[in-house]
Specification:
This protein is α+β, with helices and mostly antiparallel strands. It is built from twelve helices and ten strands. Helix content is 52%, strand content 14%.
């Protein structure tokens, strides 16, 4: 079944008993994702559902494949995150169908905004920056309290490999030989880290803002691994926007520094700060490069910006800063010195 065919999806929902045959509901496509088909079902009372169907071949320019059975992992992640994080932070899972590689969840009420689009248009709002740091820090810290249960549940890292390590680090290492040694060592280190629950896709694109609160989406690569990956993946987005949004560069760089201080206060139980911060810096650099030379590139950066970001990151990889604050300082220096 292809859920992007509204009539086909309606028949499926009725046949499976999820929707009454006489129900009035509008079914529409949600654009933007590359790894899933996504549809919204709107009801007359203002409520709604969102359905996701995992794709075997992702919608990007280069070949990129991942087992659509990952939808089962996302459903499990949604359940557990609903237990670990404050109420309303994660949509509620309604049902899943492993055979059709789909799940359904409650829709975030209107009005809401996608944080990525907000950041591309406006100065980062401190409340949102702080909320996101607390959200990720809470996830990493609280998961440790349930490690005996969660570690075996999320031990399989195959989806993290196919959706993150291969397309971001391995593929980029092939395309940018100057970065290969750095990325190869980071791959080795990352595969050895089994510290806490890692979201794997923590980015502004996967965060909606409703009534001033952040709602986290897209959990298909959640696993037990290295929390530094989540930090680097997220901070690479803010630093890339500092690059792109020249008129708001200082605000984005300040947001990175504030975010890190807020996050680290929530993660003291995870591991000593020095070792965690070192890996966070390295993952940030790796993701900054992957988002311009990997399989999934940032669409808002033009080719000149991608070339500049590549040159700066490769330079930083030769002598990586030891702290996030030092990384922010060097990022600003090198951007300001670039034409």
């Amino acid at each position: 079944m292809n859920i992007e065919q509204p009539d086909e999806l309606r028949r499926y929902l009725i046949d499976r008993g999820h929707l009454a045959s006489d129900a009035t509901a509008r079914i529409e496509r949600i654009d933007g994702g590359v790894s899933n088909r996504t549809m919204r079902v709107r009801f007359d009372d203002g409520t709604g559902w969102v359905l996701k169907q995992a794709l075997a071949k992702l919608r990007v320019e280069v070949d990129w494949f991942s087992d659509p059975a990952r939808i089962v992992r996302e459903a499990l992640g949604m359940r557990r995150l609903g237990e670990l994080l404050p109420a309303g932070t994660v949509p509620r899972l309604l049902f899943e169908d492993p055979a059709e590689h789909l799940l359904a969840m409650t829709a975030v009420p209107e009005p809401h905004a996608n944080w990525k689009q907000v950041l591309l248009a406006e100065t980062p709002e401190r409340n949102h920056v702080h909320q996101s740091a607390e959200l990720l820090g809470t996830l990493h810290a609280r998961a440790l309290d349930r490690a005996a249960e969660l570690k075996p549940e999320f031990a399989d890292v195959s989806f993290f490999e196919s959706l993150r390590l291969e397309p971001y680090y391995e593929y980029t290492a092939e395309r940018v030989p100057e970065a290969a040694a750095f990325l190869t060592q980071l791959l080795v280190d990352t595969r050895q880290q089994r510290r806490t629950l890692v979201h794997g896709d923590f980015s502004p694109k996967n965060i909606l803002i409703h009534a001033g609160r952040l709602v986290l989406l897209d959990h298909e690569v959640i696993h037990w691994g290295d929390p530094a990956f989540d930090v680097g993946f997220f901070l690479a987005h803010l630093l890339s926007k500092a690059h792109h949004c020249r008129d708001r560069r200082d605000a984005f760089l300040a947001a990175v520094a504030e975010w890190w201080q807020k996050y680290i206060r929530h993660t003291a139980p995870v591991e000593p700060r020095r070792s965690l911060e070192d890996r966070c810096v390295r993952h940030t650099l790796a993701c900054l490069l992957a988002r311009v030379r990997g399989r999934s590139t940032l669409e808002y950066l033009d080719e000149q910006e991608r070339s500049r970001q590549t040159q700066i990151v490769v330079r930083l990889m030769t002598e990586a800063p030891s702290t996030i604050d030092a990384l922010v300082h060097r990022w600003q220096e090198l951007l300001d010195d670039s034409p």
